[in-house]
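Database export, one record per block. Field names are fixed; values are copied verbatim from the stored entry.
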Amino acid sequence: MSKEKLISGERPSPIEWAFGVYNIKPEALRGHVACVVWWDFFAHRQVKKRWSHLDRFMAEYDEVNIVDPYLIEAELIKLGYHKRAARERSGVIRKN
C-alpha cells in the first residue's frame, strides 16, 4: 500500500488495506492492527454494504493475547498512519 496515498488524504481501497495488513507478523499483532484499520475506515458502512477484506485478519485478534502497543504503533505507521494517530490508536502512552 502506498503510504503517500494515505498521507495525501486519499483513502486506500479495502484490497490495498488487506495487502498492507497481510504481511504483518505475528498473527496476534496482525489481528490487532486489522481491527484498528477496520474501525477507523470501515466500521461506518451498513451491513449490506460491508467490505469483508479484513475479516480473516480480524479473526486473529484475541483480547487475551496482549500485544505490545509500540508494535501496533509501528505497524500503523508503516501502513501510512500519521505518527500521532498511530500512537493514539495503538494505546501508547508517552510522557513528555
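Remark 1: The first helix runs from residue 3 to 7.
Remark 2: The two ends are 32 Å apart (CA to CA).
End of record.
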